[in-house]
Amino acid sequence: MNCASANATDLVDYLSSLGHQPAKIRNIDYWYLSPLRDESEPSFKVNRAKNVWFDHGIGQGGKAIDFVMHYFKCPITEALNKISLFHRQNITVSVKKSRDSTDLPSPRNIESAIKIVSLNEPITETNLLHYLEKRRVPVETANAYCKQASYTLNDKTYTAISFKNAAGGYELRSEYFKRSTAPKYVTYFDNKATNIAVFEGFFDFLTYQTIVVQHAPNLTNFLILNSLAFFERSLLLMEKHDRVHLYLDHDNTGRKCTKIAEQRSSKFIDESKVYKGCKDLNEWIMKRELEQKKAQSLRLRL
Question: pTM for the whole thing?
Answer without folding.
Answer: 0.66
